[in-house]
Amino acid sequence: MDGRTKPDVIAPGSWILSAGAQPFNENECDPSAGSLPSPGQDNASRQGLLYREGTSMSAAVATGNAALVRQYFEDGFWPSGKQNSKNRVNPSAALVKAVLMNGAQSLLGIDQNFAGVAKVALYDGAQNFGKINLLNSLYLQKENNVRTGIWDNQEIEDQGSKTYTIRYSRAGKCRNTSVSITLVWMDPPGASGCRSCVLNGLDITAYVKKSPERVFYPNGFQSNPETINNAERITVRGLRKRDQIIVTVKASNLVTPSQNFALVATGCINTSDFYEDVDNTIQIVALALGGLLIPIGLCLLVLFCVLIRIDRRH
Fold this sequence. Notes:
314 residues, alpha+beta, Jelly Rolls, four-stranded antiparallel sheet, globular
């Protein structure tokens, strides 16, 4: 009732082949070749499988994608696109949601059955951010060129602001000239029947450093921030080599002292800005310790020699 757009994202939900368990039968969900049911067939399960459609199916597809996003981070695929247990990240719920919404794609239209296909637009009440697409959302070596940058569990105080720099890069034959950036936070629950339901208002804006006057606003807004949703996406287009995107998150009128949020960026971006390989950290620490140990060792050697000379004198 306050005007926010739903659903957040959409997923396939028409004629999805699903489990149709048959009590007391074993291996009933492993049909033999040629025995799969056909879409529109009688609802009675055939060899433990049946087709269904609706939100019961699309919600399951979206949930499976959310599980893959969490596994991607927990198995250490970020940011290199290859599994590395040393890079494990425990993602927040806001981060998982931001990833799904950031890479979502617009549909061509809505099937109205016998009435044809109706046009849709991003951020409307039919598709909002669009259809989930993980290849648009997370980098996998040899599978896609998109790079992923994240800032998770970021804390901002009332009236505060945070600024992030994203560097456009065509490394790895990445040629897409747009970068998608999504801000998500878990807002405190509003009152039933509220007409202005976002309690902790965060705003995201972005501009290309070479052209400060070219400001980008989220969710299709052209000249002002978005104030009614707790998920905001900006798409910066027409980027050129070595462009820098300056992203600002501002907090206003928080009902709590601070608010945590997640920020995700995908596209042709410089991953070295986000890379925090544990191996590199160990090497840096080792070099730092080595730099300290050399003078300490010299001091101990001098002290040892002095003690020997004193001992000989006595």
